[in-house]
Amino acid sequence: ISNFVVISESKSRNFRREAMAGSDPYEYQQLSCGFAYGVPVGTQNTNVVVVNDVFSCPYPLELTVKKKCKGLSGAKLEIVDLKSNIVLRVDGPHHSFNKKRVLRDPAGYPLLTMREKLTSWNHRWTVHRGEGSDPTELMFTVQRSHPLQWRARLDVFFQSHHHLRNFSVVGTYHDDSAKVYHADALIAEVKDKSGFGGFLKGKQDFVVRINAGVDYAFIVSLLVILNETNSIF
């Protein structure tokens, strides 16, 4: 599978106002030729849109993931652009036995909820739209390539093509880096830039470089799961 649908609806300029009004600013977009959420439907393009096209830029993008430790129970993540504007946030009950992480937009609106399936040998995670867990809102699943693996690797499966691996995430332990692949093509990578001093202060910064046309909210969600399963961040 080499091509993914571009959701061509115009970007919403008033999504925060709609969120305050109670409607969904990131409404699921069903297309006549297939499905949204980045599921492959044809050969017309190679862009990757999974969460929403407002998170896809026409140029290569560099973001910084800032990890701020909150005591011994875990950390919260802030994702900022080159001007230090917050573009995404990640939170969740880090002390909870049932791992759950919520990806939010800058206004706090929940985009995705990531949950670990405790009975899975492959550390399987389910990713739902918003904060719910309704099976109809399941977008994709992520799991280790092998239960006992020496190299951090995750495979991504979309709900409508659950038997086909759509993406893979490969991390390395020695330098806290990771790469995201679509088939054999590298579409994003992350590297630690904080150094040991930042680690001692309870803060770590990671630089994420994302190819043009790739949904950065989707990429961040994969890196969050990689962190939870392999402690990359």
Automatic annotation (TrEMBL):
This is Protein LURP-one-related 14. InterPro entries: LOR, LOR_sf, Tubby-like_C. It holds the Pfam family LOR. Transmembrane segments: none annotated. Belongs to the LOR family. It comes from the Eukaryota. The lineage of its organism: Eukaryota, Viridiplantae, Streptophyta, Embryophyta, Tracheophyta. It comes from Noccaea caerulescens.
